[in-house]
Specification:
about 375 residues, alpha/beta, 8-stranded mixed beta sheet, 12 helices, 18 strands
């Protein structure tokens, strides 16, 4: 039998939220280990938006400048009619965001962001190939059992393990997420084809059709060498066992063909495209129990229509760390209560608006999202 390793704080999952939690807890002086089921780091996913609300958190862990140098800095978030091209809204970002919200707004490849986050962590406390299989709550700790046979005893456990969270199942029982009735297609487009169209593609634009069908298209690198889109399309059901399936340019043309010339050119430049289901869960009535606590998608998964899902996980990590700093790890029950009181209303509001898919379609003031500072917001 392996000897049981003892740790103070175990973070389950080294995604964007888990990696942020580890960095922030480490920076605050806590002894923290992170356990990730993937065998090694890989450049997963596609594009992602990081609002000023979360660039402030990356500033705290020393990553803001690095990310700002890699990502694209759109001057506006444009919303446009997918058929006519008419502008529905122009939301100012760029220098305005820096001045007004206190940090830049960037769009970046998720893999590039994640790579920077992972590289900045203390590597000897980051454990890949650790898939959690069992959790036993004991009087003074939590016993974690992993598929590789290792066992770890932790004083506190933070579940940053996504929508299919094992920690969440432990707290609430097994419950599959519900299919939302929507899928998203994701594609990095062929830049040569895009340029050959002779059209000027905006660095951040959301195209809209009836029934809230849409394509969110944006640059993922500051030098404009990569352009990405994600769609939202209502469908009858999801019949696949896998997390995603291959789609095709033909399928994209069937859904969005005959639209504005820029949309047609975007679809024409599509090469590899995949199709992902969007899952829902109801807002949680329970964020923590005993020594277990949830953050991000494990706690409040949301459809990606506000581009704030990962941002909410990272805000969670910042507030949870501040709560533990305030109380110390022994009074974790108070820390978890402060964390939930501070986060619940905001996370639920963002979850609700994301699921409604109305964000920035009409002119509105996004300051309540972007000007928010999880590092200074009053703790509840």
């Amino acid at each position: 039998m392996h000897s049981i390793e003892q740790v103070d704080i175990a973070v389950i999952g080294a995604g964007l939220g888990g990696a942020a939690a580890m960095a922030l807890l480490d920076e605050a002086g806590f002894s923290v280990h992170t356990f990730e089921q993937a065998p090694e780091f890989t450049r997963l996913g596609a594009g992602i938006h990081i609002g000023p609300n979360v660039m402030k958190v990356f500033r705290k862990i020393g990553l803001e400048d690095r990310l700002a140098s890699i990502g694209s800095h759109p001057d506006y978030w444009y919303s446009r009619d997918g058929l006519t091209g008419e502008y529905l809204s122009r939301i100012e970002l760029g220098d305005f965001a820096k001045k007004e919200y206190g940090a830049p707004y960037i769009t970046i490849h998720r893999g590039d962001l994640h790579a920077e986050q992972i590289a900045a962590l203390p590597q000897h406390r980051l454990h890949f190939d650790h898939r959690l299989t069992d959790i036993t709550e004991r009087d003074d700790d939590v016993l974690l059992t992993f598929a590789n046979g290792k066992q770890v005893s932790a004083k506190l456990v933070i579940g940053a393990d996504g929508i299919n969270s094992v920690i969440r199942e432990k707290l609430l029982g097994v419950e599959k997420p519900r299919f939302s009735g929507w899928v998203g297609h994701r594609a990095l487009v062929n830049m040569d084809k895009l340029r050959a169209s002779g059209l000027d593609f905006e660095p951040c634009v959301k195209w809209w059709w009836e029934q809230s069908r849409h394509i969110m298209a944006y640059a993922t690198k500051g030098n404009g060498s990569e352009y990405y889109y994600v769609t939202g399309v209502p469908v009858d059901g999801w019949e696949h066992d896998t997390g995603f399936v291959d789609s095709s340019r033909d399928e994209m043309e069937a859904i969005f063909g005959g639209s504005h010339p820029m949309v047609n050119a975007l679809i024409d430049a599509t090469e590899e495209v995949t199709k992902w289901p969007f899952w829902n869960r109801d807002p949680l009535n329970l964020w923590s129990q005993g020594r277990l606590c949830l953050l991000g998608d494990a706690c409040h998964p949301m459809r990606p229509h506000m581009a704030q899902g990962a941002c909410m996980a990272i805000e969670d990590a910042a507030v949870l760390t501040r709560s533990l700093v305030e109380t110390g790890t022994t009074d974790y029950a108070t820390a978890f209560r402060i964390y939930e009181n501070t986060r619940r209303e905001r996370a639920t509001k963002v979850q609700t608006i994301s699921n409604a898919n109305t964000w920035l379609k009409e002119p509105e003031d996004p300051a309540w999202v972007y000007a928010h500072d999880p590092l200074s917001v009053q703790l509840g």
